[in-house]
Amino acid sequence: VCGDWQDCINEFIIRAITTQIAYNESDEAGMLEYEKEKARGVSYMDNLLEKIRYYQSNRETYPTLDSYYHSILDVFKED
Predict the structure, then answer these.
(1) Taking the model in full, what pTM does it have?
(2) Which DSSP category does 2 fall into?
(3) Sign of torsion over alpha carbons 63, 50, 40, 33
């Protein structure tokens, strides 16, 4: 259960990160994690995964998650 809106957003981001970590291990593990999170009703998963993958590929520009966090938040502004 989420507290305030920031807690909910951070929870969604964490779930996307753990899903991407599973994909990094194998496509099968990633898909299992993805399906689990989608079944739990995690909104924005596809867009969050896209942002997390971009972050992973651009670590020279964004050395920390904190330096990229504002870009991740854009996912929630798109609706």
Answers:
(1) 0.87
(2) -
(3) negative
d(CA 62, CA 27): 25
Q: What does the alpha-carbon distance between residue 55 and residue 69 come to, in Å, rounded to a whole number?
A: 9
Q: For residue 64, give both structure tokens.
A: 């920390």
Cβ-contact 18, 48 below 8 angstroms: no
Assign 60 to helix, strand or coil.
Answer: coil
The amino acid at 5: W
CB 47 within 8 A of CB 78: yes
For 7-57, how does the pLDDT look when each residue is reduced to its tens digit (9 = 90+)? 889 999 999 999 999 999 999 999 999 999 999 988 899 999 999 999 999
